[in-house]
Amino acid sequence: MRAFIGIGLQTEIIEKIYEFQSMLREYTIEGRWTNKENFHITLKFLGEIQPEFVPQIEEAVKKATKGIKPFYLCFSEVGFFKGNKNIRVLWLGTEESELLNVLHANIEDELYKIGFPKEEKKFTSHITIARDIKLKIGIEEANKLFSQIEKKDIPVKEISLYESTVIEGKRKYIPVFTVPLK
Questions:
Q1: Which residue of 70, 72, 110, 174 pairs with 157 in a disulfide if CB–CB is 3.0 to 4.6 A?
Q2: pTM of the entire predicted model
Q3: Got the DSSP string for 59-93?
Q4: 162 with 175: CB under 8 angstroms?
Q5: Beta strands in the chain (DSSP E)
Q6: Average pLDDT per block of 10 residues along the chain, 182 residues long
Q7: C-alpha dihedral over 176, 57, 178, 4, to 10 degrees?
């Protein structure tokens, strides 16, 4: 199964992101929009894993979260990862968070111990809202639109392993297990 470790978002946060995504659609030439049910923050992409490996991953995530209490993230800006001729990934970023960085590093360390390679790129906390997109406006203008949305802080209370699968032609992220922060 294809899997990743991530932070799920509350309905109120999802609706605010969807509100912005809907505004931005008017300024889009082409692209694929993330379904609002799939908004999340990825902490670690695992790729293809065997289902029987899930208990080891769960134990590693429990170790990684030990001593980390629930915390909040704040939205920062609209950003992107470049593609060849377009924006490969359009995202909403979060402000730098020491607790999130510690959590991410712990997850990297614990999963490395059970055989997952460490990510070489710097961790960028973000929520993907579109892929392979061409906009009629620049990122500065997109950020001006984003500034019009009332933003709520993002509570981080738990970490989940998600299975990424396709059901009836749509990508779905299904929680396999969830570890609460305490």
A1: 70
A2: 0.95
A3: HHHHHHHTTPPPEEE-EEEEEEEE-SSSEEEEEEE
A4: yes
A5: 2-8, 28-33, 40-48, 71-73, 75-82, 87-94, 126-135, 154-156, 158-167, 170-180
A6: 97 96 95 96 97 97 97 97 87 97 98 96 95 94 94 96 95 97 96
A7: -60
